[in-house]
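Bumping my old thread because nobody answered last time. Still need a sequence for this structure:
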């Protein structure tokens, strides 16, 4: 059973960088043909895909967020990390990590991030 767990700050100030880590257990992030995504849901809005990283370390970003987003991974810890720069209140959301690129079969429980001064 694959399990994902998000971690990071619950509160970030505007203009700062948000960094969230997804720790994966029960499966390797380097297993061929799997993709690992970050998705968010602002209050009262639909889910929004942010980016994914593939088993071969390739990354694909949502064009609307690409200029502010960076994905990386640490294979020794079996985790991947999202960085979102220059955050604003509109970036407040529940952030999820999940396995998949379009459809997702495993999700983390989500972590609330609030951008406020």
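Sorry it took so long. Here it is:
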């Amino acid at each position: 059973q694959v399990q994902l767990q998000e971690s990071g700050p619950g509160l970030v100030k505007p203009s700062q960088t948000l960094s969230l880590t997804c720790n994966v257990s029960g499966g390797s992030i380097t297993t061929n043909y799997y993709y690992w995504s970050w998705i968010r849901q602002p209050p009262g809005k639909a889910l929004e895909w942010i980016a994914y990283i593939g088993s071969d370390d390739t990354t694909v970003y949502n064009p609307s967020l690409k200029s502010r987003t960076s994905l990386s991974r640490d294979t020794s810890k079996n985790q991947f990390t999202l960085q979102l720069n220059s955050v604003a209140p509109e970036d407040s959301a529940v952030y999820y990590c999940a396995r998949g690129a379009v459809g997702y079969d495993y999700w983390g429980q989500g972590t609330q991030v609030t951008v406020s001064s």
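The mean pLDDT is 97. Let me know if any region looks off to you.
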